[in-house]
Protein: DUF3149 domain-containing protein
Amino acid sequence: MAFWLDLMFGNPIGLLSMIVIFCTIGIMSYITWMFIVKSAPKP
Structure:
C-alpha cells in the first residue's frame, strides 16, 4: 500500500494523473445528474 501511495502522490506525474481521474469522475457524475434532472417528467 505504501508503494502505491508513493507511486501516485510521490511524483508530479502520479499526482497529475490522480487529479485527472478525479476530475473525470466529477464531470461524468455532473453530466449524469444533469441528464437525470432534465429527463425527469414535468409535473
